[in-house]
Amino acid sequence: MSVCALLLSARFAHSQQFDVAVGGSTLFSTRNITASEAYLPPGEKGGVYPSVGIERIFQNHYGYSAEIAYRYDQGFYNDYQHFRPVIYDFNAVYAPRLAKKTTADLTAGVGGETVVFYPATGNCAYVGCSTHLDSNHFLFHAGAGIRYALWHRVFVRPEANYYRIVNNTVDFHSDNVLRLGASIGITFHRD
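Predicted structure:
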């Protein structure tokens, strides 16, 4: 019985690919058009966002992926306190081959954003108090990238990721965020 399971899993492994990629990107957001408000939440933009992701594609060009990106250095929220966003998503993937060394990566899914706010003063008056606050939001994600095989199993992928972050206007002035960047990765199994 275990020999049959091993043979089936070996056959199944040849009909898929598994990728791991690391990258860097930056965020873009729309301009604030509500200048008449007394309190203007800042735009969620700028900064360097390192990322790491995994992707599994089956023989029919469909699969799934997961990715996490975070702001490398703390941003400065309205010239008052530091903050750091962390964005993560889980996606369905369609990866059609465009040419011999080129594949499109089209993704759509859901995820979340956690924004950690660090108080302007880190002093605690009592034992066990927290020196940071978190703001969590659900998001919808759509992304596109062009994967180019550089050498053997190593690839590079310029990519664009759009996020519709639900209730992001609690912390920032827009629910719409665009992350542009590139990643480099390795394919562990390929047809």
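Summary: The beta strands are 16-29, 46-58, 62-70, 75-77, 81-94, 102-118, 133-151, 154-165, 176-187.
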